[in-house]
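Quick note —
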Amino acid sequence: MTFHPNLDPDLRAFLEKTPLLSYDLNTADLAEIRRARAAACLPPGSGTEVTDVDADGLRLRVYRPAGAGDEPLPCLYWIHGGGMVLGLPEMDDSRISRFVEALGCMAVSVDYRLAPEHPYPIPLDDCYRGLVSTASMPGVDAGRLVIGGNSAGGGLAAGCALMARDRGGPSLRLQLLLCPMLDDRDDTASAAQFEEAIVWPRGSNRFGWSAYLGDLTETPVYAAPARATDLSGLPPAYIDVGELEVFRDEDALYALRLAAAGVPVEFHLWPGAFHGFAGAVPHSPIGRRSTEEQIEALRRGFVGGDI
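Predicted structure written out below.
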């Protein structure tokens, strides 16, 4: 692949030595990709204790600081990415443990069912059901509950925030939306610019939306939060996205629309960054900066301060 001229120099140096796996989901073996991703998961940090619990048939992966007592802790409810068709909670063990160890919080990650085998509304319903279960889980301070997610997980988190507003809870202090997948319409300038892209090109994005929406003739706003006409009353938002990715423009527009609706919002457009850069190259200078900003946003969210 020819690298974009704006690619961050440190990210470029990494990719020249360690190319990331790239594939076209329209022709790839989805089952094989899922197996490969499961085998490549990094473990959590040594300061995090992890257990799996069953919530009426839904697996929730629970993270707590090692040695923490029984007192209720602020909690991040997390939704993994994967374009609606890939992924599992374990693939974010390392990322989540950084949050847990830096903040002394707990986290819960949901193992939602994937498209195309389980199209909308099943993945979102799983995520919302997991959120409700988390709010009443022993050890969770429900008054300091944050929702977050990466990529497709960010889109599902935004959908759950809309549902929580419309259904009267759970109450959320913050929505942490990292390069979220928000808009199925595929009509932005960045979508057209990144027919070819590192990690998540336009064709894979189209595949993910098609798999998720299935046979729907109209897209519900909970499925694609960018379609929501009323964004008022939502929790404060932290949104970040890379300059060099399909989601750039839909995420920037969502941030502006949240602000126009009176929702406190912090938006970061990371120059020279590709989709998922902080997870793929966490020790790069820009990756460290991104993670530090996310941790600070969570810290403020847990204590109830505006973004």
